Amino acid sequence: MKNKTMKTIYSITGMTCGGCVNRVKATLTPFAESVEVTLDPPQATLKSPTADLATLNATLEKAGHYALHTIEQHSSTSTPVSENLANKNLEKINWFSTYKPLILVFTYILLVTLTVEYAHGEFDLHRFMPNFMAGFFIVFSFFKLLDLSGFASSYAMYDLLAKRVFSYGFIYPFIELGLGIAYLINTNPLLINAITLVVMVFSSLGVIKAVMNKQKIRCACLGTGFNLPMTTVTIIEDLLMAAMAAWMLI
Fold it and tell me: Within 10 Å of residue 75's Cβ, how many Cβ atoms?
C-alpha cells in the first residue's frame, strides 16, 4: 500500500540568504514530520504539519522577520510523475508571483514612455530610449533609497565593487538617480551614455557570477521592499540598459 500524506506548501517573505533558509527550517522542523525550505522560490513544504498557520508565524516571528502565506494544501498518494507535474505547475505560478513587482514596474515605465511618444504624434526611437532609461533609473533608485542601508548590505553580497568597498552600495542609488535626471533633461548624451554603459556592464558582472555560482541570494534591484531572487532576469535587466546606452553611442 502507498502511504497517504498531507503536505502544506507556504510562500515565505523575509528570507534573503542561505542563513535565513536554515533558520526558517530549524524553526519549523518541530511542527512537521519533515520540512523543506527553498530560497528560489521562497517557500516551505511541511509534511503532516502539527500546527496551524498562526502558530507557525508566531514562532517564526521570534526567529526573525519571516512570515508564511498559504499556497497549497493537499492530501495525496504520491508518485514521482504526479509530484513532478505538481512541482512544475507550482514553479510557473511562483515565477509570476515572484517577479510581479518587477513586471509591473517595467510595464508602468513603458506605458508612460509610450504615452509621451503618443503625445508627440509620432514614435521617435531617439526620444523614446532616453525617456525610458530616465524612468528606469529614477524609479529603481527610488526603491533603493527607501532602505539605503538595507540595499547596501544586499548589494555587497554580489556586486564586485560593493564587496570590496561597502560604501559603494550607499553611492550606487544616487548614481542611478543622477543618470535618470541626466537622461530626462538630455544633458551631454555622449558622456551619460558612456557612463551608463560602463556602470551597467560592470554591475552585470557580479550578477552573472552570482547566477553562474548558483548563489541563493536576493536581488537588490528594487531595494529590500521585494524578495526578488538573483536569476537571469537580473542579468537581462542590466544588459538591456547597457545595450540601449551602447546603441545610442553609435
Answer: 9
